[in-house]
Amino acid sequence: MNIYEIHKSNPDIFTQISFKDNLFLYYDCPQKEQILTLYSNHNQLAFTISGKRIIHHGANTWISNENKGLLLKRCAYLQELPPDYSGWNVLVFYMKDEYLKKIFNELRGHLNFDNLPTTNVNIVEEFEINDKTRVCYHSILPYFEQPSQLPENIFESKFKELLFNILITPGNRNILSYISQISDGYITPIWEVMESNYMYNLSLAEFAQIANRSTSTFRREFEKYYHTTPGKWLTHRRLERAKSFLESGSKPIGEIAFECGFENVSHFSRLFKDHNNMSPLQFRNSKK
Question: What element of type H or E holds 55?
Answer without folding.
Answer: strand 54-57
